[in-house]
Structure formats: structure tokens, C-alpha cells
Amino acid sequence: MPLRDHFRSPVNDQHSWDELHGGWPMKIVEALAPRLPADYRAAPQVHLGGAVEIDVGTHYRNGAKGSATTRLGGGGSATALWTESEPTLRIETELPDVDEYEVLVYDVARGRRLVAAIELVSPSNKNRPETRRAFVAKCAALLQKQVSVTIVDVVTIRDFNLYAELLEFLGENDHSVAEPPSNIYAVACRGTIPRDRWLLEAWHRPLHVGQKLPEVPIWLSEKLAVTLDLESSYEETCRVLRIS
Fold first, then answer.
1. pLDDT of 12-25, one tens digit each?
2. 8 A C-beta contact, residue 141 and residue 147
3. How far apart are CA 129 and CA 64, in angstroms?
4. At what angle do helices 162-170 and 129-144 cross, to 10 degrees?
């Protein structure tokens, strides 16, 4: 079955795009599980930007806040408290807290080290310059830590290509990216250091509504990769959700 447009009629008349994004990560995990070596684990993760609040009260046992010395320093020695009264900046602002629909792959033999991340792009990831920068910065940071990054973007209603913006951020280009770049695509990236210099490699595949999704490599180490069949996990998600 071909890729549907989950952001326009007739699909979005009966199904919200976030049904696909919420269900697809688990189906990707199921598709990867039999292909991963014994020491690797895949897990889904969904975080909706701005949806998590920190309950400061839970840091104090039984609601008792205690003294400043107990809370900040502990023990019997004096605690040096900050006494400066005025900050150099005080403004109301919004720090980017972007949606995350992803699958993370860990090497449990190396202390559950993160080795691969599969990122499903959401509309909010492409919505504003600051959220696009936050997404790109996250991907660049993962690559710098030699975590392979796969970006899957089926968002048809935002004319931005985060892979192209990642390349711009890194000061590089990919001849397979058209001008203007396609707004839907899948790309697997990895950063390695084979000879004392960073080597960036990418497997970029433009997507098209009405066509099948491709296979992409998921790199677990410098010389070990498994195949992710995006089509099978996507179709299984659509089947379970009854997206025709």
C-alpha cells in the first residue's frame, strides 16, 4: 500500500495525524526486534512539548521543606548562599520544548549506551524557526556522539526540510536533495571518525504520497547496521488504526 497524506482529506477526515505518530514508533520497535543482535534493545519514546511539569514538592519528604542548610548543603558546615539580588536579564520567553516521536536503540552490553535514534517529524518540529533549530541541534548533537540518526518526515503541510537545514547547520550539502528540497523524505545519517577526522554519511530517500516507503540502514556501530523496512511498520500501523 502507498504512503497516505495524513494531513489532508480524505485521511484526516477520520484520523488525526498524531494517531499515526503515536502508534508507529512501537511498530518500528516490533520490526527491529528480530533483526537486532542479542545485546541491543529498541524502545519507543513519545514526548509532547510543554506537556510535562515538574512537581517541586515531591523533592521534600512528607511535604517538609526543612532548613536551607539541610536542603542546599547538608551536614554541619555552613552553606554559601547566593546574595546577588538582581539578574542581568529578566524577560518572559518560551524555551523550545519540541514534540518527540522516536525510537531509541541501546547497546546494553555497553551500559545501555544509546547507539541509534529514529525521529518521526511532527508538524510542530517544522512549524517555527526556533523549533526547527532545536530539532536540528538535537540531531547534530547525537551525530557528534556517534549516535546514528534516522529522520522520517511525512508531514505534507509544512514546506521545510529538516535534513536540508541540518546540512546547512553543518556547512555541508547533499547532491541528492533537490532544489527546492522535498518536504517529505526519509534519511539515515551517521558520524564516524575513521582517520582522525569526522566523516558524515547519509542515505537520503525522497518520499512521495502514493508510493511505498523505502528501506534505510540503522547503524549500531561503525561496522554493524540492520535494515529498517519503513513500509512494513507503516502499513502495520495503518492496519491496526484502520487507516485505509
1. 999 999 999 999 99
2. no
3. 43
4. 60
